[in-house]
Specification:
about 625 residues; 4-stranded mixed beta sheet; alpha+beta
Length: about 625
């Protein structure tokens, strides 16, 4: 399946006979020196149609000859190079793209059958030979238009844009409701993807409005919020039940397949991804706390069982398990007689950070310390293996060393997971590391106009020189910085978060369903930040009554699932500097509920803390500050 750095279909094929180059300056320099176009193949180790492409088109003798003689072939793994995929994907995997030697696109598509591929290779090579001047002129014209559009957009962004307010959240909620399938659950028709960002939006909306609150929106707003909560709960539960009860879920080994090819969730595409299963594990864990009689705890246990048995390796989780429709159609006894599908053992930082967050959510939902310990192990492995001494955060490691530095998706996911670990009181150093990571993200990726670039600035002969602001990753970064501000009292983090969200306020609609994560982040950013802090000792060697009081206060905090509230437990023996910076007396065992910079008096009993917490929740404003 592998040949050097490349992975091919596990079934017989000749794709390795194409002299593939790795993405990089050397390949582009070779194309320029030879005056040849580039054949770019973007694939994934788990991708069924990528395997078919290897077995058919890339195994065709004439395709192999033409690719080697008339092109410089470059093969890219989507999981390893999401930055390349973001700029060159032609609508799915495999992506088949034809580029000029400077990286500009000539033509492309997805899966291309052998006969068509032969014709296309000849046609593109002939066009490059005979009409290169036309192509170069066309690209120059396109670049000029792009530059003008970028300049106009920057000029427009210099003025005051739309405000961040509840209308953004409501409009995205309406979009989600419009896509909802009331008969079978999920969103859209076929193929049907689980879309965790949409599910999290619904989860947050139900948690936010699911209990009676004050009516800050005026007459009728409370009733509308209750209706929205009911609608969110219905869409959420119907979808979660359908996915867990249908063919997209592996009822033998646990875990979710990548998507369903049909509307009814019956016929899956059989690859299993760490990214998808981590995101869904977190959703089901939190849904179990909301709906304890729905049976979602079984799903949580099954998904973690599969991840532990199949993906866990050397302190982290592997990236994916290959699709194999024959194997996954067998019962447990039948599978025991066959080799399991290939598992890609590559370590991916962002996906492992998602897994750590999910395992923390699972531990809380199940009251089980084992997933919590595994989450901390993953975080410490990432910090030790994927983070350089200068703070550089790397994206992937095949086993021969980490590679690809400082992608926004990695930084945002790891920052979120570290804050989760801090808020779960699971990792003593988590907040300090989170602050350092956020500082690195700001220095390397922040745009002074607001938001964050997906990757550092690069001088490369390709579209990688064009930096982008992906709405989903920017939303995740903004939400993490919002939490960091609430936990540290440093308002600069909140200003950065609001600025990053405001960048998309005028254009989020064009992202469609991919704006769901943005809508959730905006909803959490509205109003002043709310935090709950418990100051008190933990562990042995301290007064039992003081520890018991602190434990009781902390249980009040853990019992609440408000998505807008940051929480932390600080121990005077370990966190004296942070307690002093926040202005709390270290000798007083108490809880504090803060709205912005205004905090309650010390609350030393669980009932008092619970009552103050609920009072703040009931009256918390829902408009932008």
């Amino acid at each position: 399946m592998t040949a050097g750095p490349f992975r091919f279909s596990p079934r017989p094929n000749r794709a390795r006979e194409i002299r593939w180059r790795e993405w990089g300056e050397a390949a582009f320099a070779e194309a320029a020196a030879a005056d040849r176009p580039i054949l770019l193949g973007i694939s994934a180790v788990w991708c069924h149609w990528c395997h078919v492409m290897d077995e058919t088109s890339y195994s065709d003798a004439e395709v192999i000859r033409l690719a080697n003689e008339r092109f410089v072939p470059i093969r890219v793994d989507n999981d390893e190079r999401p930055d390349v995929n973001r700029r060159y994907n032609m609508g799915g995997w495999p992506t088949t793209a034809f580029l000029m030697p400077d990286g500009e696109l000539i033509h492309g598509g997805t899966y291309i059958p052998p006969e068509q591929m032969r014709s296309l290779l000849d046609e593109v090579a002939d066009i490059w030979t005979e009409r290169k001047g036309e192509l170069v002129a066309r690209v120059a014209e396109l670049r000029a238009k792009e530059a003008a559009a970028t300049k106009a957009k920057a000029a427009g962004a210099s003025g005051a844009g739309p405000a961040l307010d509840r209308s953004i959240v409501d409009e995205i909620g309406s979009l989600i409701r419009g896509q909802y399938d009331p008969q079978f659950g999920g969103f859209g028709t076929e193929p049907k993807f689980p879309q965790p960002a949409l599910l999290r939006f619904l989860l947050d909306e139900h948690r936010r409005h699911g209990t009676a609150r004050a009516d800050p929106g005026g007459e009728g707003a409370g009733e509308r919020a209750a209706q929205a909560s009911h609608s969110a709960a219905t869409m959420l539960r119907t979808t979660l039940d359908a996915m867990a009860g249908g063919g997209m879920y592996d009822h033998v080994e646990g875990g979710f397949f990548r998507y369903s090819t049909d509307r009814q969730w019956k016929v899956p595409h059989f690859e299993k991804m760490l990214e998808d299963n981590s995101s869904l594990l977190a959703i089901y864990a939190q849904a179990h706390r909301l709906f304890p009689d729905a049976g979602y705890d079984r799903v949580v246990r099954d998904v973690t069982r599969w991840m532990d048995l199949v993906l866990w390796t050397d302190g982290t989780f592997a990236g994916s398990q290959d699709a194999d429709e024959h194997f996954f159609a067998l019962d447990a006894a039948g599978r025991a007689e066959h080799d399991a599908p290939f598992v890609d053992r590559t370590l991916y930082t962002s996906w492992n950070a998602l897994a750590a967050s999910a395992y923390l959510a699972a531990a809380r939902a199940l009251g089980d310390e084992r997933p919590r310990g595994r989450a901390v192990a993953v975080l410490r492995t990432l910090l030790g293996r994927m983070r350089g001494v200068d703070g550089t955060l790397f994206h992937f490691d095949r086993g021969d060393g980490p590679a690809l530095a400082d992608l926004l998706a990695d930084g945002a996911a790891l920052l979120t997971a570290l804050l989760d670990a801090h808020e779960e009181d699971a990792m003593p150093e988590a907040l300090d590391v989170a602050i350092a990571l956020a500082t690195r993200l700001r220095e390397r990726l922040e745009d002074q106009a607001g938001g964050w670039w997906d990757a550092p600035a690069r001088d490369a002969p390709s579209r990688l020189t064009k930096r982008e602001k992906p709405i989903e990753d920017c939303a995740a970064a903004a939400d993490a910085l919002r939490r960091l501000a609430a936990l540290t009292g440093d308002e600069a983090w909140r200003r950065g978060a609001l600025s990053g969200l405001a960048v998309f306020a005028a254009e989020y609609r064009r992202w469609g369903q991919f704006a769901a994560g943005y809508g959730a982040a905006v909803a959490r950013a509205l109003g002043e930040p709310v935090s709950v802090t418990v100051v008190g000792p933990r562990g042995d060697g301290v007064a039992a009554d003081a520890r018991a009081t602190a434990d009781a206060l902390w249980q009040v905090v853990l019992a609440n699932d408000d998505p807008d509230v940051a929480r932390q437990r600080l121990d005077p023996a370990r966190d004296a500097a942070r307690i002093a910076a926040l202005g709390y007396p270290a000798q007083c065992v108490a809880g504090y509920v803060c709205v912005g910079t205004a905090c309650s008096a010390p609350l030393s009993t669980a009932p008092d803390l619970g009552a103050e917490f609920e009072r703040v929740r009931q009256g918390k404003p829902r408009t932008a500050s």
